[in-house]
# Entry
Amino acid sequence: MPPCSSLMVVGGGVMGQGIARLFSGAGIAVTLVEPREITFSHPGVTVVRQMPAAPVPELVIEAVFEDRDVKQAVYADVERLYEGRPVLATNTSGLPLDELAAPLRYPERFLAMHFFMPADVFPMIEVVRGARTEEAAVTAAVAAVEQAGREPILLQRAVNGYLINRLQHAILHEAYHLLADGIATAEMIDSVATRLLGPRLCVTGLLKQKDMAGLGMHAQAQRSIVPTLSHTGIPSPFLQDMVARGDVGVRSGKGFYQWSGQDAADMQRRANARLQRLLAFLEREAQADAASDAGNDPGKYAASTVPGGDSAR
# Structure
C-alpha cells in the first residue's frame, strides 16, 4: 500500500494536537480542524476553522469532545464533503463504536483509532474494526500507524473501552473502592503503582509474569481475592461525587491531591519528558534482550526472577 500523504484531524484540543504532531512528524501533510481560536503551530500542520472541501484527505481522525451527538455531527460533515473516499476514524474508547456508526452512509469506511495521551509519545495505537468495517479501511489505518513509527494493536471486534482502557479502568475501579473505604490513601496507591506494579509490568507484563511465577499459586489467590473485589457494575460513587463537587484535579486545584498554586503546564511538560526518557530506556532494553535471546536459557529467569514465588499473587 502506498504511504499516506494527507490526513485530517478534527478537534484541536490536547489530544488532537498530539495526533497532528505525530503524523506530521512522519512526513504526512496534516490539516487540524478546530473552530475555536487556538495557539498551535507545528511544521507540516495547517490549522483551519472548518473542514475544507478540497483536497480530500486520505484519512480523517475525529478527536472531539466525548459526546455522541457532537461526534456524529462531525461524521455527517465528513460524509457530506468527501462522501466515502477517506477512511474515517474516531479516537473514542468510551462510546460504543457501532452505535456511533449507526447513522453513517459509509459505515464500511469507519473504525476506531484510539491514541493514549500524550498521543505523540506512546508507542502503541489501538485500531478497532466495527461490525461493518471493510478490510481496505483497516489496512489503511494500520499502514498509517506504522508509517508514524507506532505499533498498531488491532482488535477484530469492538468492545466498550477496547483493550487499554478496560485494563486501566478495572484497576482504577478497585483503587477508588480502597480510597472510599479508607483502606489506602491516594499516595499509597500511587506509590505502589509507580514503584512496584509499574516496574514489574514494564519487564514482564501481566500474563508472562504469572507464567514465570506459576499459575497454580495464582489460581489459588484468585479464588480467595476475586470474590472480595469491588464488583458493583456501576461507576464509582466516590469519583462521581468528587466531580459533582467540582474537585476535578489540576484544573480546579483539587482532586485526589491538592494542586493549588502549582503550574499545571510545567508539571505536564516534566511528566511527558520523564515518560519519553522511560520509553526510550525500555525500547533500548527490549532491543538488547532481543539481540541476546538466542544465547539465553529461559529457565534461569523463571527461577531467579521470583525467588519466593509470586508474592503479590
Summary: Residues 298-311 have pLDDT under 50 and may be disordered. The chain is about 45% helix and 10% strand. Residues 193 and 300 are 27 Å apart (CA to CA). The two ends are 46 Å apart (CA to CA).
